[in-house]
Design a protein that fits this description.
By secondary structure, this protein is α/β, with parallel strands linked by helices. The protein has 6 helices and 6 strands, in the order βαββαβααβαβα. The chain binds guanosine-5'-diphosphate and magnesium ion.
């Protein structure tokens, strides 16, 4: 009886950012609990499903959309963005150019998908490869405030740092629009 009372929610979440920042590694770590050094470019669009027992009444299926090579060309087609309700925008703390590209990704996102009434989809910024270098906290706080990110996390797919926290923050914001 209790099981019948559960609500199940399916959320499409995009994982975007420049080539090599660790998008695929973050998804593999989060969904499959694995990490590999071996560089492999994803081919095509790929998605993975993470099932969360959010609370006793709610099961959330997070469909994480990876991109694959197209990030080389800058932006993605509307098909990729369609019906997304949230995004993880990733940069690599060891490569400044990938941070410079964050706004380009955020603008592309906001141009191609919105929630009802034109509200931007919630986006969380992930400062990845934090096992290799520290990042500048005060700067990122104001960057997020000024550029419409709901939060940021220093992550490491390698060491499994803060990926769950970043995803949880995103889901909380997605739920607040439900
Ligand atoms: P994508 O192109 O954004 O999907 O990036 P990948 O997930 O393919 O990662 C690119 C490279 O960075 C791979 O060699 C990964 O092993 C490495 N990498 C990814 N995440 C981390 C991390 O948190 N720390 C370190 N040191 N390397 C990482
Ligand atoms: Mg990839």
């Amino acid at each position: 009886f209790a099981a019948a009372m559960q609500r199940e929610l399916l959320f499409k979440v995009l994982v975007i950012g420049d080539l090599g920042v660790g998008k695929t590694s973050i998804i593999k770590r989060y969904v499959h609990q694995i990490y590999s050094q071996h560089y492999r470019t994803t081919i095509g669009v790929d998605f993975a499903l993470k099932v969360l027992q959010w609370d006793k009444d709610t099961v959330i299926r997070l469909q994480l959309w990876d991109i694959a090579g197209q990030e080389r060309y800058g932006n993605m087609t509307r098909v990729y963005y369609r019906e997304a309700v949230g995004a993880l925008v990733v940069f690599d703390v060891t490569r400044a150019s990938t941070f410079d590209a964050v706004m380009k990704w955020k603008d592309d996102l906001d141009q191609k998908v919105t929630l009802n009434h034109g509200v931007p989809v919630p986006a969380v910024l992930l400062a990845n490869k934090s096992d290799q270098a520290p990042c500048q906290q005060p700067r990122l706080d104001s960057f997020c405030r000024e550029n419409g990110f709901v939060g940021w996390f220093e992550t490491s797919a390698k060491e499994n740092t803060n990926i769950e926290e970043g995803a949880r923050c995103l889901v909380e914001h997605i739920l607040s629009h439900e």
